Amino acid sequence: MIEEKSMLEVKNLSKSFGGVQALKDVNINIQKNKIHGLIGPNGAGKSTLFNVVSGLYPPTEGKVWFNSIETSYLAPDKISRLGISRTFQDARLVPNMTVLDNVMTGQCFTGYNSFLNLFFKPFYFSCQERKIKKQAIEVLKFIGIPDYADFWTSELVWVERQMVQVARALISDPQLLLLDEPSAGMGIEETKVLSNVIREINKKGVTIIVVSHDIKFISEISDWITVLDFGEKISEGNPEQIRNDPIVIEAYLGE
Ligand code: ADP
Ligand code: MG
After folding, report:
1. Cα(103) to centroid of ligand 2, in Å?
2. pLDDT value of residue 161
3. How far does residue 49's CA lie from ligand 2's centre (Å)?
4. Which residues of the chain have pLDDT under 50?
5. pLDDT tens-digit map of 33-74
6. Which among 190, 235, 242, 234 has a CA at the least distance from the CA of 216?
7. pLDDT recorded at residue 45
8. Is residue 144 part of a domain?
9. Ligand 1 pocket test, candidate residues 48, 56, 88, 228, most atoms within 8 A of CB
10. Which residue among 20, 37, 134, 205 has the highest number of C-beta atoms inside a 10 angstrom radius?
11. pLDDT at 252 (0 to 100)
12. Which atom of ligand 1 is nearest to the CA of 57?
């Protein structure tokens, strides 16, 4: 059997902040078209992994490849253009802007610097803006929140902000989507809606890594799960294997 090459390869990755080693020699392979769960207690290094993969922090040691391109030291905008998009644990949205405008900020204006555009800039910009607005409306519909478009982000409750973040991450048409604790603060019903949205995104061909410390939620949606604890990978496997792994159970009971 020919083994398919991983979409994302994290090799011997370590990240330190002063004396704190947030990631220690972590190896993770993410397969294309899968939903990959990343779990672990608070402070395990989950968000740090996303921050390194999305280019916010350079690794202290180790490397990251995306579609066989080394991205370890690339800036966030370059990584985003390669096809990696993300949400943040603290649901960062731009204040004093509508939901639609927030979603539009997820799409970068490309081609703007070409020579001809110096002459046709106003026309080009308005075309681009109209196109992006249309895309934003489509994405909000796809996520199931078209009615939010004209709301101010300050009017949204936490759960709604999470969904808007997902929409904003999707508008750039990513190949790989990183979701950092999207189910935080959600009740059972809301988590079900989120799970369905994640599955629908995945069906469109987007590979997804979901961070959570909710094993039940992660087990239900993931094809494969990696467990971090104190910056180290302590286990990986399918949901069944993870739920029955004594090392994982201990890490959770010990929290
Ligand atoms: P998780 O997302 O799994 O809860 P984090 O990746 O946020 O964990 O944090 C892992 C460890 O790294 C924690 O001890 C945290 O305090 C530390 N850490 C994360 N980011 C920073 C930072 N920017 N500066 C200093 N310490 C950090
Ligand atoms: Mg985190």
Report:
1. 23
2. 93
3. 9
4. 109-113
5. 999 999 999 999 999 999 999 999 999 999 999 999 999 999
6. 242
7. 97
8. yes
9. 48
10. 37
11. 77
12. 23
Q: Is pTM beyond 0.90 here?
A: yes
Backbone angles phi, psi at 20, to 5 degrees: -90, 120
Give the residue from 205, 243, 185, 204 showing the smallest Cα distance to 39. 243
CA 229 to ligand 1 centroid distance, Å: 12
pLDDT value, residue 110: 45
Structural domain of 175: 6-253
CATH assignment of the domain containing 134: 3.40.50.300
User: How many structural domains does the chain have?
Assistant: 1
Ligand positioned closest to the Cα atom of 88: 2
Residue 90 lies in a domain: yes
Q: Is residue 46 within 6 Å of ligand 1 at its C-beta?
A: yes
48 in a structural domain: yes
Determine the distance separating the centroid of ligand 1 and the alpha carbon of 11, expressed in angstroms.
19
Q: Does residue 1 lie within any of the structural domains?
A: no
